[in-house]
Each structure stands twice: as C-alpha cells, then as structure tokens.
Design a protein that fits this description.
The protein is an alpha+beta fold and 107 residues long. 6% of the residues are buried.
C-alpha cells in the first residue's frame, strides 16, 4: 500500500464520497459538521488536503480529508464562544480583530 497527502482537487469528489459513505454516510456527517459540499470545500477553503492510499490494484482510496478556512461562518452558533475567547485573550496579549466588511486594514 502506498500513502500520499496532497492538495484536494475537484476530481477527488468520488473518493471523498466513498470515505463519507464508509464512515457513516452523509446524514451523520451533516449532523456532526453541518451542511457541506465537497467542491465548495475544495474551491473556497484556504487549504484543503486529501490523504490517499493506493491498494494492490492501483485503486486510490481516500483515508482522510481536511479543509481549513480563515473565517467563522455566518451561521456558526459558536460565534459567541469565539468572541469570548478573543476577549479573554486580549487580557493577556494585544489583540485586534478586523473584519473586512466593517473596517479596512490600515485606516
């Protein structure tokens, strides 16, 4: 078996779907992580990585996927927790939070 990790690509949707189906199905993943769409995760995340194994038949199998964003979702119910964490952190470090919609950097 061969292992590799690389940036996710749109054509990885099939092997990603196989991972989801083998790990409990889409309903379990939506209940755990919320609504997701693979092509949007790959296209709009700051970084997406896919871990692949190749079996003896030279068939790629997805063994893991990671997508990282640099912002909080507008529908995130944990935004209050994030705000409290930033407030607590600002008691120890000089912290400023900028949002591109309300305040331009450098002004």
């Amino acid at each position: 078996m061969t292992y590799s990790v690389r940036c996710g690509e749109q054509n990885d949707a099939r092997v990603f779907s196989a991972l989801i189906n083998a790990s409990g199905g889409t309903s379990l993943f939506r209940a755990t992580f919320g609504h997701f769409h693979f092509s949007a995760l790959v296209e709009y995340s700051c970084l997406s990585l896919i871990a692949l194994t190749t079996n003896d038949e030279k068939e790629e199998i997805c063994s893991g996927f990671l997508a990282i964003n640099d912002s909080i979702s507008a529908t995130n119910t944990e935004s209050d927790s994030f705000d409290r964490a930033i407030e607590e952190l600002s008691n120890h470090l000089p912290v400023k939070v900028y949002t591109m919609c309300t305040k331009k950097l450098g002004k």
